[in-house]
Every structure is written in structure tokens, then in C-alpha cells.
Amino acid sequence: MKKHKYKSNEEYIEAQLSKTTRHPNKVFVLPTTIDAICDYLHDEDIENGLCHGVRSGAEVDNFTNKLDIDVIGTDLLPNDHPDVIKHDFHIQKPEWINHFDMIYSNSTDHSHSPEQCIETWIEQLSDKGFLFIEWTTYHQNCNNVDCFGATLEEYEKLMEKYIYGRIELDDKRKTTVFVLRRK
Length: 183
What we know:
The chain is an alpha/beta fold. The protein has a single domain (2-180), classed as Vaccinia Virus protein VP39 (Rossmann fold, 3-Layer(aba) Sandwich), CATH 3.40.50. The protein contains five helices and nine strands; from the N terminus they run βααβαβββαββαββ. It has helices at 9-22, 31-40, 58-67, 114-124, 152-159, and strands at residues 2-3, 48-52, 70-75, 84-86, 100-105, 125-135, 148-149, 163-168, 176-180. Helix 3 links the parallel strand 2 and strand 3 (70-75).
């Protein structure tokens, strides 16, 4: 497990914003990943969702359309998407505690504190909620922007007390989506 150390929170935010401004419309998640998560949720009573670190808001649109629910997204530098708000996903919003039936992120590699991130997101789940955290081979890299890098096994260890299931996709990225729930 590797973590990039920042001198300050401002340095962290500046590094994250530099990537977003260079690639404002880039979408990391593959449609097959969204489809697999929606298939997983097919028989669940899901009423709302939250996606963290969405940049362009593509995840928000995809989940909204495929699950027919209201979904909002967060990003440090949101674009003009009406359902994406400016927010640091490490910070808990009291009104979000115990609120969301579905949370998705592929952005834990952009977390300076993945443990804090996961705890914050778990608290945001409703009693019937599911948290989906995507891992790919790209999530092993660590640099000043992708500031947390870990193997699949290290991700699993990080989240082990909340793991409920896994979705494994047969793609070139070796995508695994961890399914987490509150205990």
C-alpha cells in the first residue's frame, strides 16, 4: 500500500484540481461496470444514490437512467452538471448520514486518507444501503494525483470489516467492485 504525502490540504486540492482541469470530460468508469452494479441491485429497493469523485457527472447520469432513481455526485471541481456539487468526499455532511441506498466511487485512489473515506461513506449508507468501490489495475499506481495505490488484496484488507460481496468483471483492467454494507 502506497500513499503520497502532502504538505497541506491545499497542496492535495491543488494536485487533484490539476488533473480535473487537464481532463474535465474524461470518464474512467466503463459502461460494463455500471451495468454490473445495476444488475446487482436489480431486486433491491433502491430510492437514491450518491457518486463520489465524478468529475463530469457521467456516473450520476448512468445510474439515474439505469436505476430510475435520484442520484447526486461530488467533486472538488464540479462542472456545470446540475446534480454534481463541490465537495471533498473525505468530509462528512451531517444531512447525508444514514441517507443513501447506493453509493459508488472509483476515486479512492485520489484519497489522501482512504480509511477516513471509507468510514465517511459507510456512515452515509441507509440501513438498506450498498457501497460500491471500484478497483482496477490502475488503482495500484501512486503519485501526486493518484495519491493512494494498492493491490487488490490490500484494498480487500482495507475494507474487510464491511465487505458484503464482490463483482468481478472480465475486462482488460481486471475490474473488481467491492460491495460494502454497514455492520
